[in-house]
Write a structure and sequence with these properties.
Helices cover about 40% and strands about 15% of the residues. The chain has about 450 residues and is an alpha/beta fold. The protein has 2 domains: about 1-60 and about 95-255, 3-Layer(aba) Sandwich (Rossmann fold); about 275-430, 3-Layer(aba) Sandwich (Rossmann fold). α1 (about 15-30) crosses α15 (about 435-450), α4 packs parallel to α5 (about 180-190) and α9 (about 290-300) packs across α13 (about 400-410). The longest helix has 19 residues, at about 435-450.
Amino acid sequence: MRVLMFGWEFPPQISGGLGTACYGLTQALVQEGIDVLFVVPKLMGDEPDNGSKLLSASNVGIRQVVSTDTEEQHFTRFKHFLKEGSFTTLEVPSTLSAYNMAHLQEPVHALAHWNYPVNVAETSVESKTHVTQSSTGSLYSFKGGYGPQLIEEVFRYAQVASEIATSEEFDIIHAHDWMTYPAAIAAKRLSGKPMVVHVHATEFDRAGKQGSEMVYTIEREGLDEADKIVAVSQWTKRILVERYDIAANKIEVVHNGVIPEEKPIPEVKQTLGSHVVTFLGRITYQKGPEYFVEAAEKVLNLFPDAHFIMAGSGDFMPQIIEKVARLKLSSRFHFTGFLKKDEIDQVLASTSVYVMPSVSEPFGITPLEAIQRNVPIIISNQSGVSEVMHHALKVDFWDTEALSQAICSVLHYGSLSRELKRNAGKAIDTITWEKAAQRLNNLYYELTSNINPN
């Protein structure tokens, strides 16, 4: 069994849990005897070897096509690409993020500067579209990540997928999150192979009701085109059913796992004292950082010596720093910015309790990593990890009174902290990528058997 897998991140070049999940999952699939060809926009050369075959989209030649359309024609051609499969590349002057696309509220206006390659045979004289096409394939140097080139690269990545689909042998297509859905659609239409989309997050998780219509449209088309959808939690499955009108029987829930931690817990000098509360993740709407700050204000009434670490970066950081200053909590808050793995280990080694107050968390791997570092956790009920981690304190993200009480309980009662750590440490041994890979292996064979009954 060979899987053509499309992903946007792979360690060590990661921005969140997506890359970590792709690494753990592909490693476990290889151990299951699956041959994985994992395509990423750009390889840096320092990727760890986990048995999968990595392919850089930057090294695959594509046929260049350029067109100039009116604003209305741009949006029409975008929708045509999703429905009919003609390849599209885009160029957007604003800064985009995979995790917050809320500024694309008016997709037609956002398309004003986008350039669309189209199938020359489908272009009529009346459309007044100027089209050029090179006769030989050329390389496009992907930047990767989530900068101002994101949307353009998403569709160039789809062009690369079409080249790969005609030159590689594979049995099934597996795509991770919306950035790779156009690529998977292109590969499916050219190869006729079954397609699985793996939903690690939706636009409703990232931005709530203020999300991008463009991203939602890409997500919806990918979900509709898929032969099977993998959701990382029942929480995510409910969103897909209620928000995207997907049939429940089309969705398979496969919980994430955690990569075993072999390194010893580092010894850290407690420079901040014995009461350290940590928020670790992107500082965005989705992660609920404002609720962390509001709960911290209440905790300080009972534990005035407590310190609060906010480890991560994101679009909400300026307003969170402003909120902390407005509440006069600056002396008790520490903003680290984005941290590497070793730095995260150092922070967790000095942490008394880890808090994840996410508004909508499809899964949440970081709490499991905190447990591996022997840290008790408090998580929101609005998270997928709450479905598998029963030895954690759980609150509704908006209930800052309950959150502050939970934090204070862990800080005050040593026996509670020890019990949470002991029980969670045992439970985490059962939350593995091997289980996830076995479920996916069965799913692959089910889909390919239906396509090729003999």
